[in-house]
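Example protein as discussed:

>
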Amino acid sequence: MPDSKQDGTTSGETVIPVIDLSNTDESAVLQQLAAACAKTGSFQVINHGVSDSVISDYQHQHLSFFNLPHFPSKALLYRFAGNSRGYLDHDFTKQRRDWKECLDIGMPGSRDWSLKDDDICNSCLDGYNYFPNERELPGFRSASIKYFEAMEDLAQRIAVLMIKSLGLETSVTDGMDGTENDLLSMLKEEHSSALRMNHYPPRCENMDAEEAATKGGEKLEYFGFHPHTDSGWLTILLQDPECLTHQVFRPGSDEKWVTVRPAPQSFTILTGDMFMLWSNKSFISAWPRVLTDPVKHRYSTQFCYNPGYKTMITPCKPLVDADGAKYVSCAYGYFRAVKAAGDLADLGVEINVRDYEVGSDSEHPEKQKRFLQNADLTEPFNVQNYRKWIQSNEKDTTLFHYK
């Protein structure tokens, strides 16, 4: 795991390659992509086909939302223990609070945006979407949905290229667990993707003093977003070109954090944990973080292309045949539920792809079996109902309820 210290040695010139998706030489594109995903798990794309108007309309609404008064406008949209979507200004990453405010929306349970957001058919593991009042912010919902749908299409296109870059056919199945489902079809038809709108305010005056203090011998440090990996398949990040505080970790003998300098009209792509597992570690999850800036505001958006809640992610069989399985199967619904519980409340519980490595002594693979036997993935989970189960090391067979 990379060192997260914010000091002068962590910055550097970007090593994040820029890949032109309009390049007709697909073999060159795949070669670039494979190298990037194996080295840092990150790259940029240009000529991606997403309309300038879709992006600009969305960005206008994004900025307008964060300019709304906190009370009552944002406060009415707060997420809570029984609904992981909505507004937040007290997020946790690996049990550490991030210095940011966000609005999370995601694919509705019905997969039908024409329904009212609180329609019972829209119930799913992450809960319901909360949008600002149309009278207060006209056009926000429609612009956000158009952008979401554009990201769906781009994510699927990039997923195809990522699979091809491994030398695999795009019709490959995830068959190590005995299924014969086409992976790309499952992603397209069942994905549980989420869109997060971010605002990172400048550092507060008291942060420097607090960082000089220690907590239990550990130096306190503030981040806009602490070092982490994304849990899904891939993430599409719309960067802020005016505030360059987004960094990714470059592993290796010359390991360091490098600042991403976004190319004009580009998106930054980050490989997620589920793709790392499925690729049998041929590709690695990106390790990003966001620093705090003393004077600038940062606005960005991440679209997380996530598998369906019911999807079982297993190492791809052709890659297993070549190298042997490096991971056991992961139930994405369980992985997401534990991640969300840690985000919503500081429960002292973490989960990441390392818990599924062959030979790991983690309890998560065993716990997910009981989860799958009892959980209803069409109902929003509730952190408080899961607190005892998540924190307990006992093999509790109590039924899980999302209420």
